[in-house]
Amino acid sequence: MAAVVVTGAASGIGRASAQALVADGRQVVLWDLAPEVTAVAADLGMPGAVVDVTDTAATAAAIQRLDGVDGLVHAAGRVIPEPVGAYTVESWDAVLDVNLRAQAMLVQQLLPQLEASARAGGTPAVVGISSIEGLTANPFIPAYCASKAGLLGLTRSMAAQLGPSGIRINAVCRGFIRTPMLQIALDVDEVRESFVAAAPLGRIGDPEEVAAAVAFLMSPKASFITGT
Ligand code: NAD
């Protein structure tokens, strides 16, 4: 059975997405920079590997080891809280490379397998994890905001190009979710309270609540949804 590659799968949204896809009966391959990914994968009974998604040679080699791929969930992500006046070329590139460039390169590298899946009657799909910070203003993390807004442009462009081949691509703009990435902010009472106050549902979300949307968009139930 062809597999869905899930990046950032050792933690947070990526791990929850891998779990949700497995619960849906999908074959999943878990990638992350963090070595914990192999234990997370073993718990799910799925293959896992330490892969740096910004290293195109490493991702190409990892893809060569796969039997067939019918999907990608790009949940690997990074935030460096540096406003204008603080960021550097290196820190700007570090954020953009993981959050945005990696998805562009991965879809390109996986394209032959996604096209083969469509030709074989499958329903190949890609979901990227964007953010409300790709839609609204956060003054503390300009590189992150740019990466997440860029992901939306990338999603629409790729959807327009790949739709005729039967490949769907969507993004999830999630709110504030309790994951290790956000924990440092949640530990500051006034920051956590401002997140809660800004949330219509009046609370911080859980990774599983994003994973449910990811699993839906990856499934044939979302067969007429692309570029969204
Ligand atoms: P997380 O820190 O729990 O997970 C991110 C994972 O990405 C980590 O396991 C990390 O090791 C992995 N990763 C980072 N760089 C990598 C690389 N070069 N190669 C492979 N893996 C790499 O955080 P999360 O909240 O689950 O983040 C998932 C996605 O959600 C990210 O794209 C993040 O930007 C986005 N996001 C999170 C929030 C939030 O509220 N938590 C808000 C907006 C967007």
Automatic annotation (TrEMBL):
Keywords: Oxidoreductase. It holds the Pfam family adh_short_C2. The keyword Metal-binding does not apply. Transmembrane segments: none annotated. InterPro entries: NAD(P)-bd_dom_sf, Sc_DH/Rdtase_CS, SDR_DHRS6-like, SDR_fam. It comes from the Bacteria. PANTHER family: DIHYDROANTICAPSIN 7-DEHYDROGENASE (PTHR43477). Belongs to the short-chain dehydrogenases/reductases (SDR) family. This is Short-chain dehydrogenase.
